[in-house]
Design brief:
The structure is a homotrimer.
Chain A: E1 7-18, E2 23-26, H1 28-38, E3 42-50, E4 54-59, H2 63-76, H3 85-89, H4 94-103, E5 106-112, E6 115-116, E7 123-128, E8 134-145
Antiparallel strand pairs in A: 1-8, 2-7, 3-5, 3-8, 4-7, 5-6
Chain lengths: ~150, ~150, ~150
């Protein structure tokens, strides 16, 4: 616990080039960099996907289970099904929006003694659900005391 | 980044009348109003659904894809299936609780230069999963520096 | 709203022994304890599961609907299906990782007048998706003013 004589908000955004969805990339190191730069000892970090066809979560970043997550995401909202979204845009990414809305755009991770508290096999991932390659932006905001 | 000489928490809650679920409403403008009133320049805003049959996420608020999301939510936890929840309450909303728990009650969005960082087509939505019309309450809390 | 003359971050982590997944436990009282100890009047509390086979959400903690949620989680990512994750670890918990990634690791709840703003039937739950009994760690961080 700490008073406000040293309370801070620090932020830095991340951009990452991603393949067509579902593409899942590990951004843990980039987020750790923000924690380190912030100088914040205890607090919380918020990671949010900018754009409605991206989502953020945690998983073990291992090729097999990443493939498994992609498969099940595509079963929850299959790319090859008809979506009413077509009527508005004819852009073929109705499933991308639905998948991203269900996974969700943001997570929060605690910071203790200058480090994020994550499991050994728990990585922070951004998911691009869109149907084309794109550069995704992720906002990273740290709140806590130095 | 900013020190604590101007660090603030600001909050204001939102109430919105919603149809029986799944009903999805865009609350982005109401949340923006809270950001504006807060006077906070850089930080983060937390939006949480109060009540176990509501959820919060982001999606493009376009009638077609909103219909698509409703359909797929009702496939994940179908209203017409038998739920053990019936034994406790006989209120027919077992699917509402399950749907809300899977989508999740809260999101966090970053604030940069007095504005939320959202994609052009990314709106903040509240989902009422309950089986009757109801007024849903959403808490909105801003943390950051002015 | 309040200035920074009394702005605080307070944290305390929770550990809980859980059965093999999906096991769902109510941690609302433990989280309330952290809120009370923090002395924070207005702000927000962040609850995050440490480890990639755990997740956090809210639901009415009632045996029937808890059983319903477990059943549907196991339909989204069935334990008895083949997962590519097997190739890496042969530990039979591919479904655990996928389930946890979809539900998500964290939630945020608002604090008003020294109390969390939750619905009457809305409890904070930790889900162990792993295939064995284990002690799960949850980080709890409160940010706000006294």
């Amino acid at each position: 616990m700490a008073g406000t004589d040293n309370f801070f908000v620090y932020f830095q955004d991340i951009e990452i080039v991603m393949d067509k969805g579902p593409d899942i990339k590990d951004i843990t190191l980039s987020v750790e960099e923000v924690v380190n730069k912030s100088g914040i000892k205890d607090g919380v970090i918020h990671i949010t996907s900018v754009g409605s066809t991206g989502s953020v979560t945690t998983i073990e970043y291992e090729p097999g289970v990443i493939k498994d997550l992609k498969d099940i995401i595509n079963e929850i909202a299959p790319p090859d099904r008809y979506y009413e979204h077509e009527k508005a845009w004819h852009d073929g990414n109705g499933h991308s929006h639905v998948q991203a809305a269900i996974i969700g755009p943001s997570i929060s991770v605690s910071i203790r003694n200058y480090e994020m508290v994550l499991g050994t096999w728990q990585q922070i991932v951004i998911i691009n659900h869109d149907i084309k390659q794109r550069t995704r932006k992720i906002t990273v905001t740290v709140v806590g005391n130095t």
